[in-house]
């Protein structure tokens, strides 16, 4: 019998919501978390807007000890711990209270750049000959696996505790890695997710590439325009998303709430060939990733009710819709509903997949498809492939049974995951 893997807890630290309830309300009501940042204006960025979680009102003492907070200067760590611990709590789990690790629980929590502000601080201290002033936490704050190390110690997990990194595919890939571990009976539950730092040292490279919108600094809420003819580039974002994955058997034993089920997925690469490059996807690889995920799930492409795309608000959006359409063999009015949450909080880079997967699953709970704002002028190439009614611009009432979610990242890497509304019957 195949081990069924379900989602029993979720947490999020997003530009448009910290708690799960706030995040859900923002997605339902089209509330944007993209804001103007005077710091970026001062540094002469072309794009002076971004999506950044508003954690000033969060009591960090609920998430960190006083010792852990001392000298902590890594926004990604803050976001990841908030989302991760909230997901753990939401699942009805507690950190181990004795000296024995929880051998059945592990963590796969990805990131791209972690602790960049701490690293900058360290560089200045070293260059000034003040090595002894770096502090004892500079290493853990700047190593990529710092986020999983923090969470692993806080929760007492004794199974695999690690960090993955695959650019914008990171979060979705982390979920699939945790899914595989439980499916193969190597763990009962896994905390999975990803985080991304905020700030000019993370976003500056993209501004230099001139792939961020420069004409919306005075109207940030309208800047991120996935699937729109007037899309002018992606808005940089940051934050974290987290899920607790668990074997169905374990979840039922605990009487846990079940948000949904993972029934399959796939990861691959286009090899930066066939039209693929460091920054552009190989269309054939994207289609293969989607097709393989569907085959792994044991479903028919026509079973998919909705797609939450990568859809970053660049010139590549029509290409992505074309790849979905070709892979699913569905066109026009037959195409599933499709949306992109990046219109509400920007492209959260390494955190994008995990935050968007949390939003995707919330659609099962709410019996809705959340709307995609800022695409009132749908790109004509997209309209030539699918019916405009399949791109809801406001939240609609609908009971999805199966939703496909995909992420595509720099380096021509892809991940696609298939979520299913939970039922006691086998998928």
From TrEMBL:
InterPro entries in the cross-refs: Beta-ketoacyl_synthase, Ketoacyl_synth_C, Ketoacyl_synth_N, PKS_Beta-ketoAc_synthase_dom, Thiolase-like
Gene Ontology cellular component list: cytosol
Reaction catalyzed: (3Z)-decenoyl-[ACP] + malonyl-[ACP] + H(+) = 3-oxo-(5Z)-dodecenoyl-[ACP] + holo-[ACP] + CO2; a fatty acyl-[ACP] + malonyl-[ACP] + H(+) = a 3-oxoacyl-[ACP] + holo-[ACP] + CO2
Domain Ketosynthase family 3 (KS3): 2-421
Signal peptide: none
PANTHER family: 3-OXOACYL-[ACYL-CARRIER-PROTEIN] SYNTHASE 1 (PTHR11712:SF306), POLYKETIDE SYNTHASE-RELATED (PTHR11712)
Protein name in the entry: 3-oxoacyl-[acyl-carrier-protein] synthase 1
